[in-house]
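2024-03-11 09:14:02 DEBUG pipeline.ingest accepted 1 chain
2024-03-11 09:14:02 DEBUG pipeline.ingest length=510
2024-03-11 09:14:03 DEBUG pipeline.predict start
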Amino acid sequence: MWTPSNNLEQERLDKLNNLRRRQIDPYPNRVVRTHTTVEAARAFEAAERQATSEPEPIAVTVTGRIVRQNLKGKVYFAHIEDGAGRLQLFVRIDKVGESTYEMIRQDLDLGDFVQASGTMMRTRAGEISVLVDELTVLAKALSPLPVIKERVREDGTVERFGAFSDVEERYRQRYADLAVNPDTRAVFRARARTINALRQFLDEEGFLEVETPILQPLYGGAAARPFITHHNQLHQDLYLRISFELYLKRLLVGMYDAVYEIGRDFRNEGVSFKHNPEFTQLEFYQAYTDYHGMMDLTERLIAFVAEQVTGSTTIHYEGHTIDLTPPWTRITLRDAIRERTGIDYIEHPDAQTLGAAMQRAGLAAPPKHTWGKLVDTLLGDTVEPTLIQPTFILDYPRDISPFAKTVPGDPTHVERFELFIGGMEMGNAFTELNDPLDQEARFVEMGRLYGAEEDEATPVDEDYLRAMRYGMPPCGGCGIGVDRLVMLMTDKSTIREVLLFPHLRERNER
């Protein structure tokens, strides 16, 4: 049984018991609402515009959480909020009666949910309000909501303090964060608009939205370590998917020309400002195109999303103004690294010589990395942070890209691009490999290059190879991190701000 942890909670518990002694159910089964707070205010404004003198009385029943209250003698003012907005309640003892007014005076607190019936009016101060005839408790809040206060520093920045000055506590109690922080609620409305815009664009381009398995007998489609679970009845280990890729490409074999999926992926990897073990991904695949077609589609897609979510293709992120208007910069991986570091990795054709060149330049070169992994390290450490404006980096080492076609005339590189915006990777795409014999050889090659415990380890998927042998059309595919895209659209510097319930360490782990 719950026990109050402080005097405020004990006071609220006492008030709960007072309500019950008054034979008032503090958590009734039924609720009535005729208008949201916004609908009630709009209806009154419309009546005012149409009236030649006093507007016709508008009867409403509204509901919401008390976020502000003020008791003055025989008059009670309160602001309530629902999911739509905020509205003032104006309560007079002569309208609601002494018993209801006494209940309000003694037993209502900030955070309580109430139902109020009455007629719309304007106060002398000009505020649209409900002149309340009847007020009912819908839910008594036993714990007071956190108080968030702000003050402006001398340099113009805003300092937050109070119960939620600890940012991590906001993530742990997201429900309370949402209840007291309109800015947080706005972020997740923007997230919903982002996902809706992705769907709208791809639907209008003729893509079919599909769903593929989350529990898979074999993981694949990305360089990541999976989560493993077990099906008791089948006596079978299963994996939470790390990618949709291999299932979506099976559907191209099945004669769908263009498919996409928006859903959760799971990767047993570290947590950072841009990584969470569970995250939302968009992947889309289209027959009869290649990675150039994917670039054209991707830049149009993200520009469309920005227009829908922010109203412009120019956004602001981390102090930068970013122009998402197509076309975007396209540069090969080799040229990008050479321009940034002076290292031409083609002149260092194996891991040993490339690692030595990196060390001479004062750069980290992990000793167990393959040549392709060292190239990727160069990209991540030296190039990626500089790519603020949208940029496609093209043509990646074959040994870290097992599902992409080789660049014609260049056996060491494949037709792959990664998209960078705001100094972080936003997407990854290929001219998809559709030669089943080459794909089988790639699986074997990856098994030779990487151990079973390495993220790049790619198990041989015999069923995928069987699907390819029936014939896979030439195609392009792209994956975009939806959470990172929302970070861009809302100018948030960490993925935790755009996930309702991000993964956090246990409290005793630091």
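2024-03-11 09:14:41 DEBUG pipeline.report The mean pLDDT is 94.
2024-03-11 09:14:41 DEBUG pipeline.predict end
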